[in-house]
From TrEMBL:
One of its GO terms (molecular function) is peptidyl-prolyl cis-trans isomerase activity. The keyword Transferase applies. Belongs to the methyltransferase superfamily. HEN1 family. The keyword Transmembrane helix does not apply. Residues 108-240 form the Small RNA 2'-O-methyltransferase Hen1 La-motif C-terminal domain. Gene3D superfamilies: 3.10.50.40, Vaccinia Virus protein VP39. It catalyses: small RNA 3'-end nucleotide + S-adenosyl-L-methionine = small RNA 3'-end 2'-O-methylnucleotide + S-adenosyl-L-homocysteine + H(+). This is Small RNA 2'-O-methyltransferase. Its EC number is 2.1.1.386.
Length: 832
């Protein structure tokens, strides 16, 4: 009596059972008992762990138990339901009558019908549950069986609080098996496995299934019910793959992609990698991933990028080791290696607690949380690749695992995910297969962009790697003839980090071409249908468009704002004039002092120095810029072009941009009056920085070489100002004494001593003198300049024809852009 009036879900079913008519009166389906009663379901699991994936097994356990209780209950043969043997006392019946009439009203609820064959499309449907009926009987009718006694229900699927379940009918043969006490453990029916339904709940489901959100819950007295739309169906479907989860967390299914790298907490938008990984494990009914943090005190010799970063963090030790290094110029990269930071190991266990995936990235992170997200992201990236192509050959899977520092245990892994059959449309037909392989090559969909047009005037403000950009966008489904267009997704303000693959690649490649205020319009090929339906509200129109014609996605995007990486933000906010301007002025001072007529800017980037030089009257006539970033170079070209076409005249007669590495020999960079290399070396690995120094002073041999790089010691001041530590966890500040770099692309940042050592050795070796200076702060006030500068001066004249000896056979760099005054005579570099 107490039970009947309680909120226990079984109570609801029992009340409903007492409302059933005729020979069904009082019968409660066995599968309900196993699902709705946690104690019983746990008992079943103890008796046989296989009930986890085989719902029929649990029902058979219940039926057998019921048969043993023949004095109390009736278990009907051929039916999976049980009834109390003796009639219920009148009080109970009356109570259930009252409860039923109070709590129940006529209900119409939207559900989804999932046919077993992948060729058949998912259909929305609805259930009419009359106040006097048992909702499971209504579902039974939908499934084409007589009554609820043959209906099974799955565990809940989707979010933690969800009441969404799959309902499916027990196959006839199974009923016979169970009633004849055969072993259902091995039960399987050929051909009719419902892949999509099984995918959702990780249980083998055969035949048609209904996905619905209704039932008796602990929360509500009556029948809880909620519509399940086609959109929510598709959202649940894609949430089972890592990138789908990420897209959902950003509410940008057709624009976002899970980034390939974790740069900083500040720049990561949407759910964090660790959260996504936990959610994914929950989705697949695995326990939480096991995280183990290691404090890395000693970095090994096979240094990864971030470990190198750390070397400079450990101060004292670094200095001694550095000083002991024999070949300091080039080899120091490998001879030193100490620092501290965090490494995180992630383990994923199977339901039976066997280790299935293990990831232990080599990288050392300065912050504990970064190491956790870094490792989690690797696991996610790998799983994502797997889920997008479940038939991926083992070699490829192994290869990817290797690249991501992952080890996985094949048999156990495949077994664990055996019920995740490929349910995406593009895995079926041959053309779809083709499409699929295209997707997997890139990890991203929609590589191709066509009909691109850019509108609005060029503001000169372009995003670069590491920037946070804010865009507004809309995506529509469009028929190829352009006649019909249906909005799928739009966003007024959407922020992401450039250069990490945080949006689909076609969108990112378009945004790099936009300056703030401009808009782009373009088309891309269709992503898997699931993503379109997950984004769309109005599936009817979409479905008919897709079925009638070839379609594409039509994007419109406007670049609203660009936020520079922390370094630039800090340089502008903390120094007046901004540090970058101070560096330019520093260079101008030397140009004037030496009456330089030629200048080469090594690592010119977007041309900030070259652009500013045009503002100052100097003796310069010929300017060359070199960089390896094509994006930066094309931006530089744009800026310089507009500057030169509006400017009346400076003395400049030629300006050239080359695409190439400054560590490669290239005769066109030889013999200049002044070489500048501002804030570049810290973007290279340390051995490369040394290589550049050697190549520049032994081969390019400018009269003067100005090299600037951040002073690591100054970071503490910037940190105190709060400008450089926005993404620091307060609780981690103590753990990690070492402060972070100014820009996540920096491979190192040197103390004054380290810079001094690098420059002095170089100068000595190549017969240059060197002086130290800087901008921001002062030389005699601790901790020195914010940006430290070394000025190398050549101590010998350049020999006649000095370049012939080492003429480069291959021209390493290619001309990107060239401007010259018309009357400019041909001036070979060697004549300078
Ligand atoms: N000197 C510019 C840009 C600094 S950012 C300024 O002061 O604004 C660092 C630049 O170095 C980037 O544009 C990057 O592409 C470039 N760079 C890094 N390694 C390089 C290499 N090996 N060769 C040429 N350029 C390089
Ligand atoms: Mg820099």
């Amino acid at each position: 009596m107490k039970f009947l009036s309680s909120l226990h879900p079984l109570g609801g079913h029992l009340r409903a059972a007492l409302q059933r008519n005729g020979d069904l009166y009082g019968f409660v389906p066995a599968s309900i008992i196993t699902v709705c009663d946690a104690r019983i379901s746990n008992l079943c699991k103890l008796l046989n762990p296989k009930v986890e994936s085989n719902p029929y097994l649990a029902a058979s356990i219940i039926m057998r138990a019921a048969a043993g209780l023949s004095g109390y209950v009736v278990a009907s043969k051929g039916n999976l339901s049980i009834q109390k043997k003796n009639p219920y006392p009148p009080a109970i019946i009356k109570l259930s009558d009252i409860q039923q009439s109070v709590s129940q009203e006529d209900i119409v609820v939207k559900v989804i019908h999932i046919p077993p064959s992948l060729d058949k499309i998912i259909q929305p449907s609805s259930l009419d549950v009359p106040s006097s009926g048992y909702y499971l009987d209504i579902i039974a009718q939908k499934l084409g069986v007589r009554d609820a006694n043959k209906v099974f229900m799955s565990r809940t699927v989707g979010k933690a609080s969800s009441e969404v379940r799959l309902y499916f009918a027990a196959p006839e043969s199974l009923l016979l098996d169970i009633s004849s006490d055969l072993n259902v453990e091995e039960f399987h029916m050929e051909g009719s496995l419902n892949a999509r339904a099984s995918y959702f709940c990780g249980q083998a489901i055969y035949g048609d299934a209904i996905m619905a959100s209704l039932g008796y819950t602990w929360r509500s007295g009556g029948l809880f019910h909620e519509d399940v739309s086609l959109q929510s169906y598709y959202r649940m479907l894609i949430s089972k793959i890592p990138s789908g989860n990420y897209k959902l967390s950003r509410e940008a299914i057709l624009a976002a992609e899970m980034p390939l790298a974790f740069t900083s907490k500040n720049n990561w938008k949407g759910s964090f990698p660790k959260e996504i990984l936990c959610a994914l494990c929950r989705q697949h009914r695995l326990s939480e991933p096991v995280l183990a943090i290691t404090i890395a005190l000693e970095a090994s010799c096979e240094l990864s990028r971030s470990q190198k970063k750390l070397k400079v963090a450990g101060t004292d030790r670094f200095k001694t080791e550095y000083a002991n290094g024999k070949d300091t110029a080039v080899d120091n990269g490998a001879s030193v290696g100490s620092g501290s930071g965090f490494r995180c190991q992630v383990k994923i266990l199977s339901k039976c607690q066997d280790l299935i995936i293990e990831c232990f990235p080599k990288e050392v992170n300065k912050k504990q949380s970064d190491s956790i997200h870094n490792a989690s992201l690797k696991v996610l990236s790998w799983l994502d690749a797997y889920f997008k192509d479940l038939d991926m050959p083992l070699e490829k899977l192994n290869y990817l695992a290797n690249a991501l520092d992952i080890q996985f245990h094949h048999d156990k892994f495949f077994k664990e995910f055996a019920l995740c059959p490929s349910v995406y449309k593009y895995s079926g037909t041959p053309e779809a297969k083709l499409q699929e392989s295209k997707h997997n090559n890139s990890f991203l969909f929609g590589q191709g962009v066509w009909s691109l047009s850019i509108e609005g005037s060029d503001s000169g403000l372009f995003p670069s790697t590491g920037c946070l950009v804010s865009v507004s966008y809309s995506v529509s489904l469009m028929t190829e003839d352009g006649h019909v267009k249906e909005l799928l997704e739009s966003n007024d303000e959407f922020e992401f980090e450039m250069g990490t693959g945080a949006v689909i690649s076609s969108l990112e490649s378009v945004v790099t071409q936009l300056s703030v205020g401009q808009s782009a319009f373009f088309k891309v090929e269709l992503p898997p249908e699931e993503f379109i339906f997950a984004a769309a509200d109005d599936f009817r129109t979409i479905r008919s468009m897709l079925s009638v014609q070839d379609c594409c996605l039509d994007y419109a995007v406007t670049l609203l704002a660009v936020t520079e990486p922390p370094e630039e933000r800090m340089e502008q906010a903390f120094f007046s004039p901004p540090l970058s301007k101070q560096r330019v002025e520093y260079a101008v001072k030397h140009i004037r002092e030496f009456c330089a007529t030629t200048l080469v800017d090594f690592g010119c980037g977007s041309g900030s120095l070259l652009d500013s030089l045009l503002e100052y009257p100097t003796s310069l006539e010929k300017i060359v810029g070199v960089d390896i970033s094509q994006k930066s170079l094309s931006r530089a070209a744009k800026i310089l072009h507009s500057k030169l076409s509006t400017k009346i005249d400076a003395g400049i007669r030629s300006l050239v941009l080359y695409d190439g590495s400054i560590t490669d020999f290239n005769s066109r960079l030889c013999g200049f009056d002044i070489g500048t290399c501002l804030e570049v070396i810290e973007h290279m690995e340390e051995d490369q920085a040394s290589l550049f120094g050697n190549v520049a002073l032994s081969y390019f041999r400018p009269k003067i070489l100005i090299v600037s790089t951040p002073n690591y010691e100054y970071n503490t001041i910037l940190q105190k100002s709060g400008l450089a530590t926005q993404d620091d966890d307060p609780d981690e500040r103590n753990q990690s004494q070492a402060c972070k770099f100014r820009n996540h692309d920096h491979k190192f940042e040197w103390t004054r001593k380290q810079f001094d050592h690098w420059a002095t050795e170089l100068a000595k070796e190549h017969n240059y003198s060197v002086e130290f200076s800087g901008v921001g702060g002062a030389a005699d006030v601790e901790p020195g300049f914010a940006s430290q500068i070394a000025v190398f001066k050549r101590g010998f004249p350049l020999p006649e024809n000095g370049l012939a000896e080492k003429e480069d056979s291959a021209q390493h760099c290619k001309l990107v852009w060239e401007w010259s005054t018309p009357e400019m005579p041909d001036m070979p570099a060697s004549s300078l």
